[in-house]
Amino acid sequence: MHALLLRFFKVLLMSLGALLLLATLLFVAGNLWVLGKTQARIEHELPLCGAERVGIVFGTSHWTRSGVRNPHFDARMSASARLIRLDRVDHLLLSGDNRTRFYNEPVTMWRDLRGRHVRDEDMTLDYAGFSTFDTLTRARDVFGVERALLITQAWHLPRALYIADTLGLEVTGCAVPSRPVRGVWRLQAREWIARVATLGDLYVWGREPYFLGPLEPLEIAPRSWEAWVLDGAAVEE
């Protein structure tokens, strides 16, 4: 009897070990797959980011849990304003969480960018970007976006690009410059988990966005110099 129990536990431990090894291999393979499919389309120098009509800016909290200003938020806003000035993008789709009236990422981004001299007509707010998946699905199905520059941190871009690819969007990634931040390794580690979860969302569970709504194509205003050229052409006619 004792020998049978010992043998049973030995087989059980070996089976659990094999399952753990398989799960680890699948976890690593999933991450390497996403990274391999997207890394070549991530640019780390803002002036070299590919020019697109639309830049999608992913929302994040303005403040950290410790009550200080979120450096990741600042980096995204600074990069977005600079990309407008560099004419790398013409219009910014600001997508973030607005589940309650006390928390509104899109409006916070809009206010910050106005303070950085980005014109109101160069920004559209998406109040239902509750996740990276929701942001990109709504960009396609609500705002009529087909091509875009994705603006966020380098560790976030592979997952965002992969989701966009699966949705049929033509995208490239522009990694925002970031200074060293304490605890960023936690976000990077969480991103490894999120990439694998995203593969499940896309290929296993058939995830759907939390909220869509009617089509509202972006109204992209001409740049100041374009307006001047158009006005000049109208006068000549």
UniProtKB/TrEMBL annotation:
InterPro entries: Cell_Envelope_Assoc (IPR051599), DUF218 (IPR003848). It is a single-pass membrane protein. Its main location: membrane. It comes from the Bacteria. It is found in: Cell inner membrane. Residues 56-193 form the DUF218 domain. It holds the Pfam family DUF218. The keyword Oxidoreductase does not apply. The keyword Transcription does not apply. CDD domains: YdcF-like. Keywords: Cell inner membrane, Cell membrane, Membrane, Transmembrane, Transmembrane helix. Participates in the barrier function of the cell envelope. This is YdcF family protein.
